[in-house]
């Protein structure tokens, strides 16, 4: 760190990197626990598939939320490590199943498990990780934590099923979209931050604020992801621009554009989304239409409003250095766009 | 019942039917709870897929084991209904995922969900049912029950993954086979009977006996299923003779025949199982070889030994009419063969 002061360092790195630094010791314990629990005495396929995904350089954002909220609320025990590993296992299990459902071939810039092994392995190893996460949370002995994570698991699966039917249907509106992303993304963020407060013995109001922070952060995060799909680069998100368009997923930018469509635009959306008749140049045309109706900037404004809600929720919590980083993390989620 | 005495009735119907009669009220409550909890406010696809499978005339054997063991041990509360529904949801979720993994087209004599809808729906609705089962067991408030069912879930998934790699490999021996079927079948039977005892407040020795009964019954049940695959009829098991052979699954009859194979037979097994080169007449030839080495009768003897273990375990439990039916149920499992 020669010649670089702490404050300069703090500005140069992202809030997520700062969380990694502050929580380095806890995260090392989480990573040890993950490696230990993804082992299988009898089925070596399990750690192979899991390691491929878990060691692919994911940023461990969700487990860090659990560690950060638990520490911020003064937790001094060991169970936050178990819960952080639980959250990462649930996340990894959903990624394995998502890649089967979406027939994806790349994730985090690498071939997906369903491509390297097969769909069978992805389905069953995902099931195994769900079960392992369940064992870990039982070890905490907290029925309240189990209740929160059971509800989150059901909401995640429900959101994924809803997305199956909502995609490719131009009637999908912003209300349905919000339900889908609450399920597929925000439910786990909200559970991750809520259980951090619960094991720390935070008050009901504090737990509610933590949950609201996680929910709003998760919604903003997913809206930004969906925006990036129409304009990010490979380097940023590790997937190609236009994937959602090609898969005919009704995400927020498209929903906003469809709501304002002229008759001609409507015919275009019906052809490319509902009838799946996509031709060369259609993605470019879609992006021109999105621009015309300010669909990207409108989506970004929505994401910013959710970031504001996330930060407002934090104001109901005690002042703490981790609270500041979590606040900056919310801002950073939207900064990924520019 | 005109003209038919109770004892004549008892002989005419199977032990499973008798369980249904004795537990009719409890099972009605389980079925109500299942219908209530498979609903989804937002995603109508979920109850559609679930109903297809759950209302297809499955015999509800696993939930009846939970009800029967809880009642036998004197339980007078309501939670056995929740646990029975939990067990049926876990079973249904694994069926949905199994059919994706096996690329099955028929189950219980009807088209599978993956065929009627798609693999995506089967994967995600399976995940939803796992999550719902998890919510139900949390409602019982028993950490011990949660521990048992979390371990069972992990063992089930591990057994399924092990089967992926053990199938199609002639080195798979009886030890590996036992591990696979303990996972894919016996783990849920054992958990179903164990939790029945746990919520009833049975002693440690009684709970261990209940668990051993479920484990041995499940193993016998799966061995018989694997035997039926080489000789049952559609009417009995709802799938076609030789499915395992065509899918190159190393089940007990085949493992026993491979262990005694002549050089010529070994070459045959290598061709049809390992190299997947199957021709007309190969199934018939396989069945001749199984016969030659008494592989079916040997497997049947193994199943009978497990039935004896199941019945012996029951002897450690108090005398009760349900105990007698459970004992007859164990015998009945093997009688399905003849």
Describe this structure as you would to a colleague.
- Chain A is mainly alpha-helical and 338 residues long.
- Chain A has one domain (13-335): Orthogonal Bundle (Farnesyl Diphosphate Synthase).
- Chain A is 73% helix and 1% strand.
- Chain A has 18 helices and 2 strands.
- In chain A, a hairpin with a 2-residue loop joins β1 and β2.
- In chain A, α2 packs antiparallel against α18 (321-335), α6 packs antiparallel against α10 (174-199) and α14 crosses α17 (295-314).
- The radius of gyration of chain A is 20 Å and the shape is globular.
- The relative contact order of chain A is 0.11.
- Residues 1-5 and 233-239 of chain A have low confidence and may be disordered.
- Chain A binds chain B through residues 40, 42-46, 94, 97, 100-101, 119-121, 123-125, 127-128, 130-132, 134-135, 138, 141, 143, 146-147, 150-151, 153-154, 156-158, 160-162, 164-165, 179, and chain B through 40, 42-46, 94, 97, 100-101, 119-121, 123-125, 127-128, 130-132, 134-135, 138, 141, 143, 146-147, 150-151, 153-154, 156-158, 160-162, 164-165, 179.
């Amino acid at each position: 760190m020669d010649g670089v002061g702490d404050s300069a360092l703090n500005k140069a790195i992202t809030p997520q990197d700062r969380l990694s630094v502050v929580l380095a010791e806890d995260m090392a314990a989480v990573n040890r626990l993950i490696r230990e629990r993804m082992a299988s005495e009898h089925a070596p396929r399990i750690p192979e598939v899991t390691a491929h995904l878990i060691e692919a350089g994911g940023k461990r954002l969700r487990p860090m939320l659990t560690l950060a909220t638990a520490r911020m609320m003064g937790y001094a025990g060991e169970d936050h490590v178990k819960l952080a590993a639980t959250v990462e296992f649930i996340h990894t299990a959903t990624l394995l199943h998502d890649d089967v459902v979406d027939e994806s071939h790349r994730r985090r810039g690498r071939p997906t498990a369903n491509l390297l092994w097969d769909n069978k392995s992805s389905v069953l190893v995902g099931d195994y990780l769900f079960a392992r996460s369940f064992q870990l949370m039982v070890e905490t002995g907290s029925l309240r934590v189990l209740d929160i994570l059971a509800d989150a698991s059901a909401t995640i699966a429900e959101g994924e099923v809803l997305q199956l039917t909502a995609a490719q249907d131009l009637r999908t509106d912003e209300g349905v979209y919000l339900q889908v992303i609450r399920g597929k993304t925000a439910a786990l963020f909200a559970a991750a931050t809520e259980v951090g407060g619960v094991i720390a013995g935070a008050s009901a109001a504090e737990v509610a604020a933590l949950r609201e922070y996680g929910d709003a952060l998760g919604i903003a995060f997913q809206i930004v992801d969906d925006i990036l799909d129409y304009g990010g680069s490979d380097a940023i998100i590790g997937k190609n621009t236009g994937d959602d368009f090609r898969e005919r997923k009704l995400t927020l930018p498209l929903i906003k554009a469809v709501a304002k469509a002229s008759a001609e635009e409507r015919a275009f959306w019906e052809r490319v989304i509902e009838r799946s008749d996509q031709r060369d140049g259609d993605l470019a045309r879609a992006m021109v239409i999105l621009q015309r109706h300010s669909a990207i900037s409108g989506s970004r404004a929505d994401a910013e409003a959710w970031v504001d809600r996330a930060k407002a929720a934090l104001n109901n919590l005690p002042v703490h250095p981790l609270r500041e980083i979590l606040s900056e993390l919310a801002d950073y989620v939207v900064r990924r766009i520019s």
